[in-house]
Amino acid sequence: MSALIERRPGQRHGIPVETTDAAHLAASRRRLDATQRRWLGDSGFDAAPGTFALVPDAAGKLVRVLVGVASADPLAALAGLPCHLPEGNYELADEGVLTDTALATLGWALGAYQFTRYRAAKRAPARLIVAADELARLAPLVEATTRVRDLVNTPTQDMGPEQLGEAIKTLARAHKAKLRDWVGDELLKANFPTIHAVGRASHRAPRLVELSWGKADHPRLVIVGKGVCFDTGGLNLKGGEGMRWMKKDMGGAAHAIALAGLIMQAQLPVRLTLLVPAVENAVAGNAMRPGEVIATRAGHTVEVDNTDAEGRLILCDALAYAGEQQPALIIDFATLTGAARVALGPDLPALFANDEALADAVLQAGNAVADPLWRLPLWRPYRRMLDSHLADFANASASRHAGAITAALYLERFVPDGTPWLHLDTYAWNDADRPGRPRGGEAMGLRAVFAFLQNRYGR
């Protein structure tokens, strides 16, 4: 949170940052003296979105910053400034054109992110002074986003199933939550056969980690996150290009962990269960093979059509276990399908829901906090694409059609009838640097779901 600092009594004011656009640039210029106006004109500043101008006084000291913004994207308005403005303290000028300064301030903080585990930060970010109440509201969101980014960015050598479990244990200690896990062959004894089948070929034991928190009389909420810490594709081996970034295949778990942290920090009145099946999908002599049939926790038999459709296999046991707790709501996050990226691109997570009102509420919450989702249908006639002549159904389809939908339909079979369920197929990654969205791991859909839960549970 070093990019946002609390305004304290007697604190020196920061350098004013005024947001403007082409329609208001003339008014912004009138607030400058003649020398500064000449300086602004000579610099060629035209208030295009993403540009800024440093305005000095007569002695050459920086006294004001003008920033070109687009009102349609307040989250990005200031996000490029923390690592480009001179180091120092700044504050938003009252004359700015942005009406949603809270999102702009959040964007500033997100734009200051640097992953520093393996190299030093390139520079210290410029700092934005904010009111105490605004800092208290934004700090958890920034912390949660940073947690997702850090977990996803960490290479698999330092983020295997055990380390992912340690991240959950750290969270449990911080919030006095209960924790249990099943590791290796304990999964078979506890009837989590598909999690074991996917992870058994790795030298790192597969596991299921469960965090429990909240009062028994509150509505039960279960959050599930796909924790494939590296995905080779198994015996259906990925090509080199497809395997390159598969450290991020635990991005669903990262989202689930971060959301659990937000819920506990906000003291939402829920009885929370976090479930993270954590595995590596590796290649070895004991790896699951295409054509094998696995008996799942729910009692369904599943034919392994493709070992690279492993995420839904570990999730199905976790979802079945979630359903046994008779929750009021199940939410799962997963970097599940490339098909969702083909359909919606890298920025829009796909939302699936078995409840119309829930889906609408999540979509509205996402739009309100500039964390949009796009709903795809649970088109049940496509269940035929998962038909098997050996088992109850297969884990993947021979067809390339509707891959995100068939994956969601597979998961839906493990959610008890009548249990409200939300499934987010998220990319969890930025392919290139953009303001507020640095290349690498990214939280996508996290703020949307948290805002929905805040609305739903009244705090």
From TrEMBL:
<dbReference type="InterPro" id="IPR000819">
    <property type="entry name" value="Peptidase_M17_C"/>
</dbReference>
<dbReference type="Pfam" id="PF21337">
    <property type="entry name" value="Peptidase_M17_N_1"/>
</dbReference>
<dbReference type="GO" id="GO:0006508">
    <property type="term" value="P:proteolysis"/>
</dbReference>
<keyword id="KW-0378">Hydrolase</keyword>
<feature type="domain" description="Cytosol aminopeptidase">
    <location>
        <begin position="306"/>
        <end position="313"/>
    </location>
</feature>
<dbReference type="GO" id="GO:0070006">
    <property type="term" value="F:metalloaminopeptidase activity"/>
</dbReference>
<comment type="similarity">
    <text>Belongs to the peptidase M17 family.</text>
</comment>
<keyword id="KW-0031">Aminopeptidase</keyword>
<protein>
    <submittedName>
        <fullName>Leucyl aminopeptidase</fullName>
    </submittedName>
</protein>
<dbReference type="GO" id="GO:0005737">
    <property type="term" value="C:cytoplasm"/>
</dbReference>
<keyword id="KW-0645">Protease</keyword>
<keyword id="KW-0464">Manganese</keyword>
<dbReference type="InterPro" id="IPR043472">
    <property type="entry name" value="Macro_dom-like"/>
</dbReference>
<dbReference type="InterPro" id="IPR048816">
    <property type="entry name" value="Peptidase_M17_N_1"/>
</dbReference>
<dbReference type="Pfam" id="PF00883">
    <property type="entry name" value="Peptidase_M17"/>
</dbReference>
<dbReference type="InterPro" id="IPR011356">
    <property type="entry name" value="Leucine_aapep/pepB"/>
</dbReference>
<dbReference type="GO" id="GO:0030145">
    <property type="term" value="F:manganese ion binding"/>
</dbReference>
